[in-house]
Design a protein that fits this description.
Layout (H helix, E strand, L loop, with lengths): L1 E9 L5 E10 L4 E5 L6 H6 L9 E6 L2 E2 L5 H6 L1 E5 L10 H5 L1 H5 L4 H14 L4 H4 L9 H13 L5 E5 L7 H18 L2 E6 L2 H7 L2 E6 L2 E6 L1 H6 L4 H7 L1 H9 L21 E4 L4 H11 L4 E5 L2 E6 L1 H16 L1
Helix pairs in contact: 9-14, 13-14
Length: 322
């Protein structure tokens, strides 16, 4: 867990980027930090790897204060993905990905195996891409490599600073989906800064909403939709979006099978694929379980939780506005 305890960031001109922020970011989950430009979200994220330091307060990783930690060692233990991708153009994809493992003195065979495994996980065939250079790849492919590079040293924490915002809408949506599937495989503590509420609702386990250097609300996507803490949060999410997600719509579960998880080891409530998404959400709430096992005429279609039902509602909304 990452904990911010009464953190303030004050610049020499008196500007306060953060004001007495206390918030816990859960371990092994994807937390989205969202808010308007200048709200302090990137400053908060950069404090985790000491790219920014607090004027007051303390930051803890797994209950250990980072104040006395060596900056170089700390940064090598934390993955970082930026909006501009930041691959070295004169280096092959293999060399770009292996930067941190080499700094950590990993054996060459371990580095090579890790690089190939991660490229495969993000849909890039190592045999095709390892020896290519960044400029030979599309923007979406380059950002996939950026994610792989951040994960190559097997960090527990990954920071992502608006990593998909410069991409075209199709590439962005694909990478959002791939990040969610990747997180189900690796279970890292991911801090994802974004200004896009739809993106946050789609990918995050927890959302931190910020305004003017302060935290306005922390909760799951559904908690923010059901119970926005104040008028700012309500307006930032958007009344139309809130109403859309609350109703979920009458479309059938079976139409959204492509959004559902294929595997789930925990308990799940059986749900007929002919149920509407709205009725399915009510069933999920009443069951007290975290997943529905969606069955179509005796065949398991997949497992759907709160996130998958939210994504179904988002899909309906995009169709309606297309």
């Amino acid at each position: 867990m990452i904990r911010f305890d009464k953190v303030t960031k004050r610049y020499p001109d008196g500007t306060e980027a953060l004001k007495d922020v206390t918030v816990d970011l859960p371990a092994r989950q994807l937390t989205a930090i969202i808010g308007p430009s200048g709200c302090g979200k990137t400053t908060l994220m950069k404090m985790v790897n000491k790219l920014e330091n607090p004027t007051e307060g303390a930051i803890y990783i797994d209950d250990e204060p980072i104040t006395g930690m060596d900056e170089v060692k700390l940064r090598r233990s934390i993955g970082y993905v930026i909006q501009r991708i930041g691959l070295f153009p004169h280096m092959t994809i293999a060399d770009n990905v292996s930067l941190v493992p080499k700094l950590l003195n990993w054996p060459a065979d371990k580095t090579d195996a890790r690089s190939k495994e991660l490229l495969q996980l993000v849909g890039l065939d190592p045999a095709v891409f390892m020896d290519r250079y960044p400029l030979e790849l599309s923007g979406g492919q380059q950002q996939r490599v950026g994610v792989v590079r951040a994960l190559a040293g097997d960090p527990n924490i990954v920071l992502m600073d608006e990593p998909f915002s410069a991409l075209d809408p199709i590439s962005r949506e694909q990478l959002q989906d791939e990040l969610r599937h990747l997180q189900q495989e690796i279970h890292k503590t991911i801090i994802f800064v974004t200004h896009d509420m739809d993106e946050a609702l789609k990918i995050a386990d927890t959302i931190v909403v910020m305004k003017d250097g302060q935290v306005e609300q922390v909760g799951t996507p559904q908690q923010l939709i059901d119970e926005p803490a104040n008028e700012f949060v309500r307006n930032f999410i958007g009344t139309e979006r809130i109403n859309q997600k609350r109703s979920f719509g009458d479309r059938r579960l079976k139409e959204f099978a492509f959004l559902f998880d294929e595997d789930w080891a925990g308990e799940a409530e059986r749900a007929d694929a002919k149920l509407s998404v709205s009725d399915a959400y009510q069933l999920l709430e009443q069951s007290g379980k975290s997943r529905l096992a969606v069955v179509d005429e005796g065949t398991l279609v997949g497992f759907a939780g709160e996130r998958e039902l939210l994504r179904a509602a988002l899909h309906v909304e995009k169709e309606a506005t297309a």
